[in-house]
């Protein structure tokens, strides 16, 4: 299993399940920060059409391209279904944001052989590792 830092370093396209329209919520600020540092963000939210300048998809299954990482901003009880969907689309990694923990989601990811992170923030890990996908200046 890859470390959180390795997952971020090796991911270019991040699907964000539960991406928010509300600019003060972490589900908005975290994906926006990742985008500003060069990651391609694909928002997943059944109640929005565009976020972060990107088309919003209703579900992971609707995304027409390969996803390197599925980032989850949904309650723990929803994480199980999201992980099942991530496995179904062939995503190599799933990341549950801060305060989201699910033993069942972890089991599903582990059995499917995909990387799994929970209760950690993408933006914090990016900052700690000084990671960026932008070309060096």
UniProtKB/TrEMBL annotation:
SMART domains: CoA_binding
InterPro entries: CoA-bd, NAD(P)-bd_dom_sf
Pfam families tied to this protein: CoA_binding_2
Protein name, UniProt field: CoA-binding protein
Classification lineage: Bacteria, Bacillati, Actinomycetota, Actinomycetes, Micromonosporales
Domain CoA-binding: residue ranges: 8-100
Domain of life (superkingdom): Bacteria
Gene3D superfamilies: NAD(P)-binding Rossmann-like Domain
